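PROTEIN DESIGN WORKSHEET
SECTION A - STRUCTURE
LENGTH: 454
TOKENS:
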């Protein structure tokens, strides 16, 4: 991907600390913990840098440089634990937070589920996942890229008369995780994005459309102008939006919003919700929770993957997993603590899922619309009306009404209501228009039916 402007490196002060430097900070914290006679400990020391710019109607609104250095320490006295963190990585700053963690642990009640993972569960291999591709992007060039993105979008149609802004974001980070069991894991990663939000207007009112591109690798980003054009296309397509009469109809979730629906599934099978008995999927392993067409896989070793990792936030080895096969739930997402609370073993998912992939069952979005025939295409969701304990689902929505397999007109100001359990079992097809911009990757979803209310 080529961008305007000259490419010069950011100042050395904005680069990441070396692994040796991270280890120096870690060694100081370990020294203090050992002097305090902690029985066990784990720590994370990290560094990061970022550049974020935003423009609106061609004018620069913000330019932000950020550099972070942090250390978090957890110590154990038996099964009493205490945690503290700091961004002051001077010797005295590190010593202060480790002593604070020790004081907290000594004052805490024992928790029979607290403690480090079992030594045999820790990662022993660290394959190259190709996650680190820094973008040496000067602020001036970043602003030019954002302007190009916005200008291309505004030029798409005369009805595009406003902008909520365009932005460029580039980040890089490194992390060292180690514990008293001898684990020491180090990784570096990058993430880059370009986004835009434009406003279309006609006699009936205004509508907004947004789009973005994201990747760990600059050359894999969509061109800035294409991002702006897609934002503009989406804004214009929503002009003249209507409401709908209350009814129950089939629904297609476009891939970017379908990802959120599968995110609700991941939250419902995560340890914290399960041991608190706050999940509608409690005790459902081995049972059908989706339609038989659904297969969901975890693939943590995808090169350049958005959520690729060889070890989780405790240092436990990640692994390929088949979470759902033929609609049947095969397992949960557990860290060590939640696993002990449930009388199970960690699945290496402390910190979440690592690249959840939904297996496509059919072609792209137009094919899904043809299959649906008549119903609603959802392209945007609003609000947070999801109850994981009961599975009740109620979200504001916008999108397009579909007749005879084709988009008929835009729709806004409606609410979708249903039950997550019914929605999951009602998935008829998964498109191959996979959105790969995040750690949950799925195509568009065709669901048998949801209730629409104005």
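SECTION B - SEQUENCE
RESIDUE ASSIGNMENT:
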């Amino acid at each position: 991907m080529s961008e305007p402007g000259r490419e010069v490196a950011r100042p050395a002060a904005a680069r990441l600390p070396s692994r040796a430097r991270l280890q120096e900070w870690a060694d100081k914290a370990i020294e203090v913990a050992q002097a305090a006679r902690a029985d066990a400990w784990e720590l994370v020391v990290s560094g990061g840098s970022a550049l974020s710019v935003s423009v609106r109607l061609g004018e620069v609104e913000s330019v932000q440089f950020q550099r972070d250095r942090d250390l978090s320490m957890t110590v154990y006295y038996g099964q009493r634990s205490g945690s503290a963190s700091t961004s002051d990585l001077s010797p005295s700053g590190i010593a202060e937070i480790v002593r604070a963690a020790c004081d907290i642990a000594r004052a805490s009640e024992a928790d029979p589920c607290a403690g480090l993972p079992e030594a045999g569960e820790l990662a022993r291999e660290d394959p190259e996942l190709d996650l680190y591709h820094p973008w040496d992007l000067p602020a001036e060039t970043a602003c030019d890229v954002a302007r190009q993105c916005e200008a291309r979008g505004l030029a798409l149609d005369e009805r595009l008369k406003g902008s909520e802004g365009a932005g460029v974001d580039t980040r890089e980070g490194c992390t060292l995780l180690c514990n008293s069991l001898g684990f020491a894991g180090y990784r570096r990663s990058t993430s880059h994005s370009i986004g835009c939000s434009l406003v279309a207007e006609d006699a009936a009112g205004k509508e907004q459309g947004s789009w973005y591109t994201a990747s760990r690798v600059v050359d894999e980003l969509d061109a800035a102008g294409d991002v702006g054009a897609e934002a503009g296309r989406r804004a214009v397509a929503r002009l003249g939006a209507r409401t709908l009469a209350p009814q129950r109809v089939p629904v297609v979730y476009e891939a970017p919003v379908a990802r959120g629906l599968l995110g609700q599934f991941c939250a419902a099978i995560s340890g914290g919700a399960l041991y608190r008995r706050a999940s509608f999927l409690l005790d459902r392993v081995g049972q059908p929770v989706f339609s038989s067409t659904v297969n969901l896989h975890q693939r943590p070793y995808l090169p350049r993957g958005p959520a690729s990792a060889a070890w989780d936030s405790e240092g436990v080895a990640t692994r390929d997993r088949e979470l759902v096969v033929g609609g049947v739930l095969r397992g949960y997402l557990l860290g060590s603590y939640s696993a002990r609370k449930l009388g199970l073993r960690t699945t290496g998912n402390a910190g979440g899922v690592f690249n959840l992939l939904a297996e496509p069952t059919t072609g792209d979005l137009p094919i899904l619309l043809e299959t649906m025939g008549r119903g609603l295409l959802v392209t945007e969701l609003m609000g947070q009306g999801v109850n994981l304990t009961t599975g009740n689902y109620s979200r504001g929505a916008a999108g397009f009404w579909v007749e005879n397999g084709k988009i008929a007109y835009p729709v806004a100001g409606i609410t979708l209501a249903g039950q997550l359990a019914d929605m999951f079992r009602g998935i008829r097809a998964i498109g191959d228009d996979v959105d790969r911009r995040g750690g949950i990757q799925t195509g568009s979803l065709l669901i048998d039916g949801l209730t629409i209310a104005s």
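SECTION C - NOTES
The first strand starts at residue 40 and ends at 56.
The chain is about 25% helix and 35% strand.
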